[in-house]
Amino acid sequence: QAVKPVCNCRRHGGMPAAAGSGRRRFLGSAAIAAIAVLAGCDGPGGSGSGSTRAPREIEASTSCELDGMLLADYPGPKGQLFYADATEPAFFCDTVELLNMLLRPEQVRKVAAAYVQDMGQTDWDQPHGHWIDARAAFYVRGSRRNGSMGPTLATFSGETEARAFAGQYGGTVLRFEDIKPEMVDLSGGARFDQRM
Fold first, then answer.
1. What's the pLDDT at 34?
2. pTM of model > 0.90
3. Dihedral (CA of 164, 132, 88, 110) sign
C-alpha cells in the first residue's frame, strides 16, 4: 500500500504548482499589506526614517530626560525625541542636550523622530508648542539669548526668521547637517544653570 505524502509540495507528490500558486500569492500579498500597515502606523511628520510620531506638548510636570529639570520653568527652545522602541518621547530642556543625544557617535538606539520648537512662532521666555522636525530646522549658534542651560542653539522653521534672529541677537545660521558633536558638548553644562 502506498504511503500518502506528508507535505503538499510538488516534490513529494502534493498539489501541482499551479494549484498552490494562488495561495502563495494571497499569503505574500497579505504579508506585504501587513508590513505596509505597520510601517505607517506611527503617523505623519518627522525625520524621514519611515517610522515617526507626532510631537507631544509640554505639561507642568514634564521633565528633562538628562537632568530632571522641569521644562516649563526655563526659557528657550526645547526638544523631544522618540526612540523607535518607545511610545512616549524623551524631552530635553535645551536644544544642545537634544542635539548632543542625536549626534553622539556611540548613539545606537534608533530614533524615530526628533523635534525642536520654532522660536519664530513662540515666546522665548515661555515657549509652548510649534514643534518642527529637528533635522529640517535652521539653527542659530552663538547668539546672546540663553536657554535653560546657558548658551543654546535657537531653532526656526525658516531661514528668513533664523537670519533675522541672528541679525538682532548675533550668531551663525546653521542647518542640522552643519552641526558637529563638539558644538553641542555637555561637559560642565550645569555650571550655566543659575537656578539649580
1. 38
2. no
3. negative
